[in-house]
Amino acid sequence: MTYASVRYIVDDVQKNIDFYTTHLGFTLNFTAAPAFADVVRGPLRLLLSGPMSSGARATPADADTPGRNRIHLIVENLEDEVARLKAADLTFRSDLVTGPGGSQVLLEDPAGNLIELFQPSAPT
């Protein structure tokens, strides 16, 4: 399978492995924790780079905080997903927002990176 890869700089690789595999349906593809791991969900390969990884060390000092970019995960029932994740005491960074294309909410991973959970509008 060909993957689209996204790198997230994280402060604790194992904590983020647990977050993505436990709560968001990713599977562990490879780990060299505490430096690095990659987790996979469908065609998305998420690279989790800890402070000792080459990916994190190559990051400029002025770009050392989580950014406004986010991965976008499509869900079948957003309200059910929000309820399930709130029951797990996870951190949300937005309220549910609905627009012409669908509904979305922003979830935060343990390192402060954003995950957009999105439910497309029903076709008309």
UniProtKB/TrEMBL annotation:
Ranges where the VOC domain occurs: 2-120
Highest taxon of source: Bacteria
Annotated Gene3D superfamilies: 2,3-Dihydroxybiphenyl 1,2-Dioxygenase, domain 1 (3.10.180.10)
InterPro entries hit by this protein: Glyas_Bleomycin-R_OHBP_Dase, Glyas_Fos-R_dOase_dom, VOC_core
Listed name of the protein: VOC family protein
High-level lineage: Bacteria, Bacillati, Actinomycetota, Actinomycetes, Streptosporangiales
